[in-house]
Amino acid sequence: MKNKNCWEFKKCGREGDGNSIFEEAGTCPASTELCLDRVNNGKNAGRACWIIAGTLCGDEIQGDSASKIQTCLECDFYKHVKEEEGYRFVAGSELAEIVQHKEEILLSKQKKEENKTMKLKKSELIEKLVAEMDNFFDAETTHKQKTEVARETVNLFFNSIKETLASGDRVELRGFGSFYVREYDGYIGRDPKTGAKVDVKPKRLPVFRAGKPLKAMVDK
User: Does domain 168-220 match CATH 3.40.190.10?
Assistant: First the structure.
């Protein structure tokens, strides 16, 4: 039963479709409250249902958390989650704080998801460079020719960084950051599966340190 949500544990069949609004009659709001998603390793409020008003327990719609909490504390599912989570168990005031500020939390989650999808690919960087280079070409230069020049420029930039790091030197880009090589000594480790000793060889890895202007820009 590890990590089961309340509707799975109770087998009530009243889980919702993932929306954050209690729309359909019979759908338990614990299954649709997005702000508590992953709390106690559950889906939505599936492992924090005792803080949600209007849950459908025992074939009856329950009141707010204050009026039902004593009953919830005696619930076998509450005890089950508490035992499973141990010291990580989240209950009471922490959950109430999350629900109270759920609009801000959901907005923050939405922005994070939007930022995840906003990735700059190498091909997009080349197209941006082409757009900025229009003033450097005459009217007869084709888009294909511009793209080829931009591609060579971008490749030259990144290859120069790679070659410099491979030789053990540092790359400093004022206002952006620096790339450098960090060396790690060899050591005797252990195979996590067998416990046998393993000779881990020394290695050199590339590292990037952001400059202050870049840190400030990202922090905004």
Answer: no
Domain ranges for the chain, please list them. Answer: 6-114, 120-167, 168-220
Cα–Cα distance, 46 to 42 (Å, whole number): 5
Q: pLDDT tens string for the chain (220 positions)? A: 458 998 888 887 777 654 434 444 467 888 888 888 888 999 988 898 888 887 877 666 666 666 677 778 888 898 999 888 888 888 877 787 777 777 677 777 667 766 665 678 888 899 888 888 877 888 888 888 999 999 999 999 999 999 999 999 999 999 999 999 999 898 888 877 787 888 889 999 999 999 999 999 988 7
Distance CA 179, CA 160 (A): 12
Q: Tell me the Ramachandran region of residue 100: left when phi exceeds 0, alpha when psi lies from -120 to 50, beta otherwise.
A: alpha
Task: Kindly report the pTM of this predicted structure.
Answer: 0.46
